[in-house]
């Protein structure tokens, strides 16, 4: 039976992935390491998308810890992601911004599905999600 890694061991994994020691794991660093381990390019892309929360092409230590549930301040990490999604800096996420996010990651999600998701989580009924509405969803579902 596989054992779970402790926080220190997970830090070692991050540092191992960060070949050049610059404090972030680039797409190339992740790819190089995972290809050596026999992981397919499709799976590597999926892993990158799961770990690179702000979609800038780099995995920071905070993103790594957040994705693995180790970050002690998850609201701060979710706020950073919210800000990245909120392209027009309105303080709210609309269906166009969500659609753009999914398109950038290569995931196909229909506008109808995104509209429905916003409606289900839009507490104030304005057709957009503010941070509190967004965080309410992620904290109760992830």
From TrEMBL:
GO terms for molecular function: calcium ion binding. The keyword Secreted does not apply. The keyword Repeat applies. Pfam families: EF-hand_7. Residues 5-40, 73-108, 109-142 form the EF-hand domain. Keywords: Calcium, Repeat. SMART domains: EFh. It comes from the Eukaryota. This is 16 kDa calcium-binding protein. It comes from Schistosoma mansoni (Blood fluke).
